[in-house]
Amino acid sequence: MDPVRNPFAPGAGQRPPELAGRDKELDAFDVVLERVARGRPERSLVLTGLRGVGKTVLLGELRSMAVRRGWGAGKIEARPDAELRRPLSAALHRAIRDLAVRHRAPDRVEQVLGVLKAFALRSNPDNAKLRDRWQPGIDVPAAQGRADSGDIEIDLVELFTEVAELAQDVGTGVALLIDEMQDLTADDVSALCAACHELSQSGAPLVVVGAGLPHLPAVLSASKSYSERLFRYVRIDRLSREDAATAVQVPVSREDAKVTDEAMAALFEHSGGYPYFIQAYAKAAWDAAPTDPITAEDVAVAAPEAEAELAVGFFGSRYERATPAEREYLRAMAELTDGSAAESGEGQAGAGTADVAVYLGRKPSSLSPARDSLIKKGLVYSGERGRIDFTVPHFGRFLLTKDE
Length: 404
Hints:
By secondary structure, the protein is α/β, with parallel strands linked by helices. Helix content is 52%, strand content 9%.
């Protein structure tokens, strides 16, 4: 098979050639856009799932849907220990520019941009020297007395209100998409929940769409108890056999080629139905196939190549971020679960934290720093009290086959 024509190119957040198995989520967001545009109340949306299920890809698709509807849309990726003001300012600046082309009152647009600039400038420390002060790329004077108090919760409510009113002027809305939402600081999570609560009560046309790891609902709930009712939570999971077949067969057929049913069964078995893994194994199988169609034998030949690439780029890069003590903890988790994780769907997810301590012959309290650091690095998560699991599918299996 000609490698130049290979339709598969797995990458972080890169849209697959066929976005299969997400019609339900896309249709639901289409309803949200329409309801908000008509002034009807609607909750903001939170997508949760393990790494590799396509949350970032889906966020990008939702943003495109909003833009096609004439909405202003901005997307950011939260980072640990980084404040929300600067990236949020850049995202909303883009959304306002989307709205400005339809607004008939330039002065009104400049007014909102002035509020946004005032909000952004509060990210500078009060004692920062002039030459060290960050300047947002907003070419209007900063407003005063609006979204500039320095209290992120007050400022965010006021900023969202200004931006939403601008969208309302042109009969549309604003979508703010936040990836890796669990990495927001506690203050920023609290402020975001408060702002969404205020907007939902007023019916303002601004929707937040967050995406994050499975414990994101617990992060939001710990910040504001009403977050359970504030957001609509959608779990993004691996694909069914039928959807996995669509994700592979449709792109292959566009290249006037075929993949046998036996090959599809083998691809599903190796990938576990996870979109990123499907792309990785399908790409390797295409390159390994000497002729059309792609067969189960081609998948068998390609599997070690795909696994070697995943071991370096997908698993290895994450493993290298862990300290020796953290790797010991990860290895114990893998051995206690026989390499399976939440994706197995059998019994309780992951390993008990007490069981890890017993396995390592340590006191649970002595392992807390390693566990907390692994959670902060996004390698594990706690879906329920006393249990811990991998955020990356098949990571436990990788650890059991890795030579120390």
